[in-house]
TrEMBL record:
InterPro entries: Alpha-ketoacid_DH_E1_comp (IPR050771), DH_E1 (IPR001017), THDP-binding (IPR029061). The keyword Transit peptide applies. This is 2-oxoisovalerate dehydrogenase subunit alpha. PANTHER family: 2-OXOISOVALERATE DEHYDROGENASE SUBUNIT ALPHA, MITOCHONDRIAL. It is an enzyme of class 1 (oxidoreductase). It holds the Pfam family E1_dh. Belongs to the BCKDHA family. Keywords: Metal-binding, Mitochondrion, Oxidoreductase, Potassium, Thiamine pyrophosphate, Transit peptide. One of its GO terms (molecular function) is branched-chain 2-oxo acid dehydrogenase activity. It catalyses: N(6)-[(R)-lipoyl]-L-lysyl-[protein] + 3-methyl-2-oxobutanoate + H(+) = N(6)-[(R)-S(8)-2-methylpropanoyldihydrolipoyl]-L-lysyl-[protein] + CO2. One of its GO terms (biological process) is branched-chain amino acid catabolic process. It is found in: Mitochondrion matrix.
């Protein structure tokens, strides 16, 4: 057998082998073609490199450094232009009219909630908030193209993902006020949502930690998809900003995802700024998409202001992620962060107001979709006024209810650590109860459900 024929036969084999044992102590052995080629040695007349670290590279006797500045930038995929005109009418948008209307309503709702909650924070009624202005199409568009069973890992500007998946206005407001109906029982700061029912992991303040978590979860899903073929396969989806892509967690996650070939979509929102740091100071290369190619990951750059492009790209990425047992996909969604980084930030300290206003006027995902709807006679100014009036009432009603709600019971401070209270925790409960009883004017116990009774219940030794 010749070397060339042997290499070709190796490449033609199956993508991964069938596991012989699937018990708890043994995980399936997954072997990809390029790993099998490592034992192949080069021959004197070989035309391509067969070193384990760089397979299939041609030999050359010319010194030619790879110069990124001389190469064309990675193209940006779009379906419609900024005027709402579909570019390829034969393919269209692959979105039904009623579905497009639903997406538009959610984007408007998200935008209005952001404005109202930002104002509420400025009034001192909320401690913190983050808006999604300019990025509504990325979150809502991508979420609409995923399966409800897919596991989601968000950063902190994916409110639209929650909204599209069914997170209610009441649930948003309960979390923002950390009241007794908050799914997190008041343990997180505002906008750090989470929902096990919607398969979305709770948001963490620590930057980029969700990226390796998503890679690990995707590997678990890969094994689950193999072991349970009767259940529809699932993938993991991870959202992060281009600033998070400068963290070490990003590189570790993409590398392990590529080498283990896990079914995961990494969605980068490149909005131009990592808080106050513009992209020009973050990296020199061609955005974040170029890094995906460097890790051997299928990669696409998309116009994030085009919700139809976002949807189609996400659908195709999900198909690729499940291909041949699984593999990672990176999508760089291009956008512009219209709002401040958060309510703790004043973006006009590091960028010109005219720059922001220019982006607002020139292009944004909501107006682009509205132009498309109006072009199909599905929307008009009257419907817009009616929608905004109704949504404003619904948002403020949920806001008012959540603001008046009681805080979670104090006993929940000790939940979620041990199944039963430890001896040390009992001392802490007793000490806390003693302090609260001795200084009633310093602490508003009545604001919490059950008051001090919740701590006394713990002291009795009952299971929680």
């Amino acid at each position: 057998m010749t070397l060339r024929y042997g290499a070709r036969r190796i490449r033609c084999r199956g993508f991964w082998t069938t596991p012989t044992c699937l018990n708890a102590s043994q995980t399936p052995k997954v072997t990809v073609p390029w790993q099998r080629c490592r034992s192949v040695a080069s021959t004197p007349n070989a035309e391509r490199v067969l070193f384990p670290g760089a397979l299939n590279s041609k030999f050359t006797n010319t010194i030619e450094f790879l110069r990124p500045t001389t190469k064309d930038a990675i193209p940006t995929y779009r379906v419609m232009d900024q005027y709402g005109k579909v570019i390829d009418k034969e393919i269209g948008t692959e979105t039904e009219d009623e579905e497009a209307l639903s997406l538009y309503r959610n984007m408007v709702c998200l935008s209005m909630m952001d404005v109202l909650m930002f104002e509420a924070q400025r009034q001192g009624r909320l401690s913190f908030y983050m808006v999604s202005a300019g990025e509504e199409g990325i979150a809502i568009g991508s979420a609409s193209a995923l399966s409800p069973s897919d596991v989601i890992f968000c950063q902190y500007r994916e409110t639209g993902v929650y909204m599209q998946r069914g997170f209610t206005l009441d649930q948003f407001m309960n979390q923002l006020f950390s009241n007794s109906k908050d799914l997190g029982l008041g343990r997180n700061m505002p906008v750090h949502y989470g929902s096990s029912d919607l398969n979305i992991h709770t948001i963490s303040s620590t930057l980029a930690t969700q990226i390796p978590h998503a890679a690990g979860a995707a590997y678990a899903l890969k094994l689950q998809n193999m072991q349970q073929p009767d259940i529809p396969p699932r993938i993991a989806v991870c959202y992060f900003g281009e600033g998070a892509a400068s963290e070490g967690d990003f590189h570790a996650a993409l590398n392990i995802a590529a080498t283990r070939q896990v079914p995961c979509i990494f969605i980068c929102r490149n909005n131009g700024y990592a808080i106050s740091t513009p992209t020009s100071d973050q990296y020199r290369g061609d955005g974040i998409a170029s890094r995906g190619a460097g890790y051997g990951i299928d990669t696409l750059r998309v116009d994030g202001n085009d919700i139809f492009a976002v949807r189609r790209a996400t659908k195709e990425a999900r198909r690729l992620a499940l291909e041949n047992g699984g593999k990672p996909v990176l999508i760089e969604m291009m956008a512009y962060r219209v709002g401040h980084h958060s309510t703790s930030d004043d973006s006009f300290a590091y960028r010109q107001r005219v720059e922001v206003e220019d982006w607002k006027r020139r292009d944004n995902p909501i107006t682009r979709l509205r132009k498309w709807l109006e072009g199909r006679r599905l929307w008009d100014e009257g419907k817009e006024r009616e929608l905004r009036s109704r949504l404003r009432k619904e948002i403020l009603l949920a806001f008012d209810k959540a603001e008046k709600g009681k805080k979670p019971a104090i006993k929940h401070v000790f939940d979620g650590v041990w199944e039963e209270l430890t001896e040390e925790q009992r001392w802490h409960v007793e000490e806390l109860r003693d302090i609260l009883e001795r200084y009633p004017k310093e602490y508003d116990i009545d604001a919490h459900e059950e008051g001090l009774d919740s701590l006394r219940e713990l002291e009795k030794g009952g299971r929680r």
